[in-house]
Amino acid sequence: MQNNKVKQTASPRMMDKVGRSKARSISHTMSDDTRFKPLCPRCGELRCFIHIYAFVFALKTTRAALHGDRYIRGHWLSICPICDAYLLMREFTWSVPFYSPHDMAVICIADYGCVDATSVLEFGNLCFTPNALRGALEMLRKQTRPDGRDGDAIERLDRELLGPTGIPDDDSARAEWIAQLELLVVKWPERIGLAELDAAVRTIIEQVPNVEK
Ligand SMILES: [Zn+2]
Predict the structure, then answer these.
(1) For residue 1, how far is its CA from the centre of ligand 1 (angstroms)?
(2) 3-class DSSP assignment, residue 84
(3) Cα(71) to centroid of ligand 1, in Å?
(4) Cα(91)–Cα(86) distance, rounded to whole angstroms?
(5) Residue among 102, 52, 63 nearest 81 (CA)
(6) How many Cα neighbours within 13 Å face the side chain of 168?
């Protein structure tokens, strides 16, 4: 099924970094559900996934018309990067992040079909594009009080977010989480506090479907 397509099309670097086990887990679990069809029934494109929170944000922002060919599982909805391009904020200067099995990364609609493996960012083993992080930051800035994410105070670690990052869930998890944030803050082209970056990274990770929960 779609995992074969992923293996043929994802770059070797991204295959290694994102983690084969996670991708296999997603494909395997989805394939256990006989209702799930990996390809969009309207256009045949490989479906992507988005957390319902980002989906509602995009829907409110774009007021896009919805079609019925959608798969809902847990906190995630399937989206088609072709049929849902407008919903995914293609016409905006920034757009919501979502998970693309084709790229094995969290991306934005502007990245679809042109993910450049040399410029993807990483948090642990999870790859995402600079546009995806930009989208997450803009979403948070639209929703958070101006004084809500200042400084470098990191919120309590949400262990449910560790899975997609490959960070081991043990006593060192928080230290590793902060180390990954500090690596990312250096790469980000603008001055940004760890607290705001932490919140955006959590939004990025939330887009990766974890249907085992
Ligand atoms: Zn489609």
Answers:
(1) 17
(2) coil
(3) 12
(4) 7
(5) 102
(6) 3
Tens digits of per-residue pLDDT, 38-62? 899 899 999 999 999 999 999 999 9
23 Cα: distance to centroid of ligand 1 (angstroms): 21
pLDDT band at 66 (very low <50, low <70, confident <90, very high): confident
Rounded Cα gap, residues 47 and 197, in angstroms: 28
| Across 18-39, average pLDDT | 56
- Alpha-carbon span 207 to 186, nearest angstrom: 23
Q: How many residues does the chain have?
A: 213
> What residues contact residue 1 under an 8 Å CB cut-off, 6+ apart?
27, 31, 38
Q: What pLDDT digit, counting tens, does each position of 147-172 carry?
A: 556 677 787 888 999 999 999 999 99
